[in-house]
TrEMBL record:
GO terms for molecular function: hydrolase activity; metal ion binding; nuclease activity. InterPro entries: HARBI1-like (IPR045249), HARBI1_dom (IPR027806). It is found in: Nucleus. Residues 156-308 form the DDE Tnp4 domain. Belongs to the HARBI1 family. This is DDE Tnp4 domain-containing protein. It comes from Parnassius mnemosyne (clouded apollo). It comes from the Eukaryota. It holds the Pfam family DDE_Tnp_4. One of its GO terms (cellular component) is nucleus. Keywords: Hydrolase, Metal-binding, Nuclease, Nucleus. PANTHER family: NUCLEASE HARBI1-LIKE PROTEIN (PTHR22930:SF250), PTHR22930. Its cofactor is a divalent metal cation.
Length: 363
């Protein structure tokens, strides 16, 4: 009996070694130059040229190959891109014919590449809110040229990214629709570029609270002698620098026309979420990131970096289907009207009234 068990154990070890050798052999045969361009973009969402640029940025940040048969850095990046793009479980990514590997290896590749994309200098390079008047004026002009609304430096909203039930502080991530998520705040410009993102809060946190704690709010409030607006929905409190819709506005009144334009411009952030999640489907609310909240937040930031790279390079990604759009809308929690202090609210109303009067004069 003991001899039989030893033989079975030896056979299992040999089987595992053979699987490992087969995976290594297939990886060694991988030549990305043989993958057609359209297939490359379809699998990894980046063009070959943009992939090379990404490698130049983050390969130095990846752990060096520890063994002769270790995973090449470029293959680690391809593995992570494939996971971000497909939103499938790690096992199916690891079994993809482009680079077969064990699920544990896929997980390690994903962690290493995600960490590299979250390096502070990488985030600063690719996700950057305008810091000076010239940069703000450029964004304002683009919004004005497209929509006719002056002084807009961005649109803001939150989107939900589902995660598995966390082992700690579950109550912070459990939302009113009874699943766990990261409530991700994003600010975008008129080109759908993400200029600021915060993926550190759970689904139990109100959008308005995330904004109150955001450094960009303090930055905008500190600007002197310059008119700047962010556009948000009624989940945000009306402020001098936060323009929200007018409640119960009459259609075709000045307030109604403002609401129509404000909503039209604010759809920019909805399109940004659609492009982001259409390209990097691991973020779709109908799926779950099987990671702790901290790692899930880093994956979200990594996808935002890659989103901006693709937008700047003019690479179009797959669009969400109507069914996927409906699934996203179903999983998102409706906003609650934000509470507001009297003095700040009055200043916000004066600023919004001035904007409405300006729009009326320019009709």
């Amino acid at each position: 009996m003991a001899t039989r068990q030893l033989l079975i154990a030896a056979a299992l070890r040999e089987e595992r070694l053979e699987r490992r050798r087969n995976r290594r052999r297939l990886r060694n045969q991988l030549n990305i130059s043989n993958i057609p361009d359209l297939e490359f973009v379809g699998n990894y969402r980046l063009s070959r040229e943009l992939f090379e640029e990404l490698c130049q940025d983050i390969v130095p940040l990846l752990p060096p190959k520890g063994r002769r048969h270790g995973i090449e850095p470029t293959l680690k990046i391809l593995t992570a891109l494939n996971f971000y793009a497909r939103g499938s479980y790690q096992g199916s990514v690891g079994q993809n014919m482009d680079g077969p590997m064990a699920q544990q290896t896929v997980s390690r590749c994903l962690q290493e590449v995600t960490t590299a994309l979250n390096a502070p200098h990488i985030l600063r390079k690719h996700i950057r809110f305008p810091q000076n008047r010239n940069e703000r004026n450029l964004i304002k002009q683009k919004f004005y040229d497209k929509y006719g609304l002056p002084a807009v430096v961005g649109c803001i909203d939150c989107s939900h990214v589902a995660i598995v039930r966390p082992s700690e502080h579950e109550e912070r991530y459990f939302n009113r629709k009874h699943f766990h998520l990261i409530n991700t705040q994003v600010i975008c410009d008129s080109d759908l570029l993400i200029t600021n993102v915060d993926a550190s809060y759970g689904g139990a946190t109100h959008d308005a609270y995330i904004w109150r704690e955001c450094e960009i709010r303090n930055h905008l409030e500190g600007l002197q002698d310059e008119t700047v607006y962010l556009l948000g929905d009624s989940g945000y409190a009306l402020r001098e620098h936060m323009m929200t819709p007018v409640d119960n506005a009459v259609e075709n009144s000045p307030e109604g026309r403002y609401n129509y334009l404000q909503k039209r411009v604010r759809c920019t952030i909805e399109r940004t979420f659609g492009v982001l999640k259409g390209r990097w489907r691991c973020l779709l609310a109908a799926r779950e990131l099987h990671y702790c909240p901290e790692t899930a937040g880093k994956i979200i930031l990594a996808c935002c970096v890659l989103h901006n790279m693709c937008i700047r390079a003019g690479i179009e990604g797959p669009e969400l289907t109507e069914e996927e759009h409906q699934s996203e809308r179903t999983r998102q929690v409706p906003f609650e009207t934000a509470a507001s202090s009297t003095q700040a609210l009055q200043a916000g109303r004066r600023a919004r009234n001035s904007l409405i009067q300006m729009l009326e004069r320019n009709r």
